[in-house]
Amino acid sequence: MNSKTEKxxxxxxxxxxxxxxxxxxxxxxxxxxxxxxxxxxxxxxxTVKGFLILCAAYKNTSFSQLDIAKGLLIDRSTMVSLVDALxxxxxxxxxxxxxxxxxxxxxxxxxxxxxxxxxxxxAYQTEDEYLAVLSDKQKSDLxxxxxxVLNAQAEKESQLSQTAPLxxxxxxxxx
Length: 175
Known about the structure:
Blueprint: H1 11-14, H2 22-41, H3 48-57, H4 65-72, H5 76-88, E1 92-96, E2 104-108, H6 110-130, H7 136-174
Antiparallel strand pairs: 1-2
Helix pairs in contact: 2-6, 4-5
């Protein structure tokens, strides 16, 4: 068999399961699910990041563009480009933030809300497709476990961000 036409096994599959830490499994699953979701969202000309921005803005007008970027782990310049594209399509509007005039809130338009609802159905379909090997209980347990981990991590990050200036101030005064 020619080496160019020979089918190769997936490298990840070839690694013994006992050598795959959970963190590597989560990473691999996230990539696979994201790829599948992006493929399905293409029919409404949206990406996962665009969907998540619409999701964050759905029925919530208090989040600033910066809040959404931080919460979704999107760097500022990418966030600006994403919101620009959504705004050009008439899906969102930037509105000056009431409490901080330097910031903008991201607000869904009626068309943005309609598209979000359509994309949310695509998300549920993608989830069903990707997790088809799991029972309903396993899906529920997986979601609950991930939320538990993510909420605990968010709490740690929140506590760390509250203590970080104090740590820096302590280090500065001790020098």
